[in-house]
Amino acid sequence: MSNPTAAMIVIGDEILSGRTRDSNMHHLAGALTEVGIDLKEVRVVSDDHGAIIAAVQALSVAYTHVFTSGGIGPTHDDITADCIAAAFNREIGVRDDARQILAEHYARAGTELNDARLRMARIPDGAALIENSVSAAPGFVVENVHVMAGVPAVFEAMVASVLPGLTGGRPLISQTLRIDWGEGDIAGPLGVLAKEYPHLSMGSYPFQKDGIYGAHVVIRGSDPGMVEAAMDKLKAAFA
Amino acid sequence: MSNPTAAMIVIGDEILSGRTRDSNMHHLAGALTEVGIDLKEVRVVSDDHGAIIAAVQALSVAYTHVFTSGGIGPTHDDITADCIAAAFNREIGVRDDARQILAEHYARAGTELNDARLRMARIPDGAALIENSVSAAPGFVVENVHVMAGVPAVFEAMVASVLPGLTGGRPLISQTLRIDWGEGDIAGPLGVLAKEYPHLSMGSYPFQKDGIYGAHVVIRGSDPGMVEAAMDKLKAAFA
């Protein structure tokens, strides 16, 4: 049986303008690999209704799970919740359970729950909430789309609260060998090995450091014994 | 007149598995912003023929320029050139000018130009070559798609050789103000200001550091005077 699949949508002009370097993609990629969910595609889109809705609709039908990051804060440019509601043709409004979470959080902090903050309690009808152990304002799940915050600490906390509830697959095992040969000399033997093991994925990632040309060759697969056997042959070929 | 638009396709299982942290997206985003080309979308796809071809076809019709990174090396998992040829229904084969570049480079290095390395001279028919000042093997351009290497140093060299040949637009000017208020207190006045300046983009990027909640508010636009004026009002509102 093949693993569940996933896609991610990173929402934010600040990534596309080069102002901010996204780190959520790398975090989610590693976390999904650990639980055996295969991340197949990531799209980075701008803070634009049409772009967000199109990405959500396209990816939610193509993959088992979709994860979004960004655009669920209190300011005018936070439009993700409305876009998700529109993508699934659902109503959206301030929901009592989300309002209650915010009210308790801000009461503890001695901060006013004003209209802007209350925007973070706007949740599409029928969504389940995602706990935010960092700053309270919840994410939410509509159908197979998990809507999470863009701030890395909050995103990571939400991923940690979501993943245990998802059915994973066989985690991908990977082994890496550093080979100090030019990649053009690695390619031939590696290609032969890749044909011999069609159920494994073999990648070659070249580097050049202090005048040495080499590559990290990574062998990935869900069967640890098979990965091990292929790695032994790889080592023998380049010994 | 609005700026030219662009999309990027990052190709590689190693990004989606979390093994490698992509840096090319952030580099290209900054470089395009400087020359007034608006990066609208990025897709990260796996080393899969169907996925690469679908992304190339969808994005090349939707945007002025498309830039790809990854998958043009000598190993069996480098399939980008074949996918680009297939996406545009062109033939592909070793081309004399590209072979010549490789032959000279490897002759200087005293390295054999073997079959694997010769794969890097496979160029779709009618493509223009992109210079690679780092490691010789060229990128190429088919229609509006610029095909470049994934190794960051090579990718950056190719971007530097491509961008001067493209017609840019009005560079986006941005000014940033750090405001040490909770984002929920910034949101109201910022929303009013954003409505007053519909031609500017205003973004709020919250942070939490040493117990202080605040946000960096960024105002972007192509008219420096307008950005300046809006920033003055922003400062006055939060003074």
TrEMBL record, chains A, B:
<dbReference type="InterPro" id="IPR001453">
    <property type="entry name" value="MoaB/Mog_dom"/>
</dbReference>
<dbReference type="Pfam" id="PF00994">
    <property type="entry name" value="MoCF_biosynth"/>
</dbReference>
<protein>
    <submittedName>
        <fullName>Molybdenum cofactor synthesis domain-containing protein</fullName>
    </submittedName>
</protein>
<dbReference type="InterPro" id="IPR050101">
    <property type="entry name" value="CinA"/>
</dbReference>
<feature type="domain" description="MoaB/Mog">
    <location>
        <begin position="7"/>
        <end position="170"/>
    </location>
</feature>
<dbReference type="Pfam" id="PF24102">
    <property type="entry name" value="FLAD1_M"/>
</dbReference>
<dbReference type="InterPro" id="IPR036425">
    <property type="entry name" value="MoaB/Mog-like_dom_sf"/>
</dbReference>
<dbReference type="InterPro" id="IPR056596">
    <property type="entry name" value="FLAD1_M"/>
</dbReference>
